[in-house]
Amino acid sequence: MSRRFKPGQEPESRFRNMDHPVWNRVERFVDPFHDTGRELLPQTAWGFILYFANQARWPFIVLLVVGGLVGGVDAALYWSVGWLIDILDNSSPETLWRDHWHQLVGLAFLLLVVRAVVMIGAAIIEQQVIVPRFYTMIRWQAFRRVIQQPYAFYQNDFAGRIATKIMQAGESTGDFIVTSLQALWSFLTFVILAGTILTTLDWRMGVVVATWGCGYVAIIRFLLPRLRRAGRENANERAVLNGRMVDIFTNILSVKLFDSGQREHGGIRQALTNYLSAVTHLTRMITTVRASVALLNGILMTAVGTLAVLSWMDGAISTGSIAATMGLIFRLNQMSGWMMFNINGLIRAYSTVQDATETISVVPAIRDKPGAIEMPRSSGHIRFDKVVFHYGKEHGGLFDGLDVEIRPGEKVGLVGPSGAGKSTFVNLLLRLFDVEGGRILLDGHDIRDVTQASLRDQFGVVSQEPSLMHRSLRDNIAYGRPGATEEQVIEAARQAHAHDFIVGVEDQKRRRGYDAHVGERGIKLSGGQRQRVAIARVMLKDAPILILDEATSALDSDIEAAIQENLQTLMAGKTVVAIAHRLSTIAAMDRLIVMENGRIVETGTHAELIKKQDGLYARLWARQSGGFIALGEAAE
Ligand SMILES: Nc1ncnc2c1ncn2[C@@H]1O[C@H](COP(=O)(O)OP(=O)(O)OP(=O)(O)O)[C@@H](O)[C@H]1O
């Protein structure tokens, strides 16, 4: 797991001080930020549920005991109604208290104390321990696994969908365990006790209850797999619908510019229709189950009622026993209906956990090797050794045995038409994807032999469209160096020519300057401002290798010229890989590598390449400089 997190450090709540001597005592049983450190979470729903239940063993054992007691107390209360009727029948007001005071006190104790303790115990475990802390523990552990997934994982899924899965995993795992231990278990205890009481009154009633039990189990066993499938379909369609909406709202500008409003309606309508079918399928199954239980319970109540009256007519049972029998049976009827609701909830929770594990418990395609070393600060010596990479495709390869060497401190420009493989080159170097053949060496280390975190510590990257986080400008810049001082942040912003505009920024909540928040992905800043903040962040990081992917493309010429000066300072002594379509920005590099369709077609300095009149670079240069820079002037 991440080397920077120290387990057991519970951050302070921003919400309010939650310290309270009594609540704290019961709530401390589960540490919400506990983590086992296991690399991969279980991939089946059962495995996942048991894995987490085991981490909060004690509260669940208490809940198991409490759940059993709830069923026991319930059965005892209904049984005591019959008992009370019988002793009232056989006593006079004068002798009642004298002969039965201890039993009456016992009944009052059951009602007043035992029942209350059991109910309060169940509420505390569920509401104080499971809901807040157990849910949080699962979400925390799930988040830590998901964030380790490589870049490609996020390219293949919706961000909103991934976040939803993490939230649901906590809630559904907790709900599944609580419902099993509380509702299902207390129901089973009640059924067993009620069956035993009725059997002792008349064995035939025991047979009826046992037959009813078989019918109930058969309904569940027959319909359970179907309900489970329907529940899963439902969760999937719901996630797709949610993901589609998040995708639309995330790309709202494209939607506004390209769609008059109707096209997205079509997609959402389709997703809603699919979701509706899934919900309808599920609700039909639920209605079938409820109808079956209603019929079965009708038979149970009629049969047991008839047997009880017949036994009474034979003088085998008392009036009180009839009252207890009917009470228990009516309660059983009521509970079994309520149980269907809970079983439905259990199935839904199970399906949701299963669905969530398919996102959360995926084996990361890129992992640190066991024993991967921490890369020390690099000298910046990069080597691509016969690198093969096709984005997993069998045909239409990109790199097929690419050999490149970049010496420490060398400043290299990557040039080539769109789709040549420049960004892919950089992505492989950063190990956002793993090579499919050959190897990439950094200071002689295969980059797969060092930890990903220590590898990426070596790079400062400014990309074409830097995305900022919806945090303060200070936090965004300091992201380059955790723990940076205010002075260091401001100095970096000055060097990136960002300070002057930052002091004038104010957000909707009236936070100003470095405290102002920048909106999701930095949307409230202009492209050039965003790029300057990203450059400040990299200046602060001060990594030994710089990757500049169209780093100054969004800047106007004045700002660009000013920043170029500071970039020179930043680049001093560092290895630099710069990608630019505007060739003028990289013409001064030590060496240019010209790529086309994943192959290196030319390499040399600007002056050398420009001389090859029929070369790709010379042609690209001529085309660009034709517009605004005279060929001769630039070639100097
Ligand atoms: N995630 C991906 N999955 C599959 N193919 C990809 C992926 N990213 C890029 N490609 C393909 O790889 C090839 C090289 O793309 P790359 O982005 O490296 O080119 P580039 O030279 O950086 O282009 P540009 O100058 O337009 O940014 C292209 O054909 C592209 O379609």
UniProtKB/TrEMBL annotation:
The keyword Transit peptide does not apply. Its main location: membrane. Pfam families: ABC_membrane, ABC_tran. Signal peptide: none annotated. Part of an ABC transporter complex. Transmembrane domains (TMD) form a pore in the inner membrane and the ATP-binding domain (NBD) is responsible for energy generation. Belongs to the ABC transporter superfamily. This is ABC transporter ATP-binding protein. It comes from Oricola thermophila. The lineage of its organism: Bacteria, Pseudomonadati, Pseudomonadota, Alphaproteobacteria, Hyphomicrobiales.
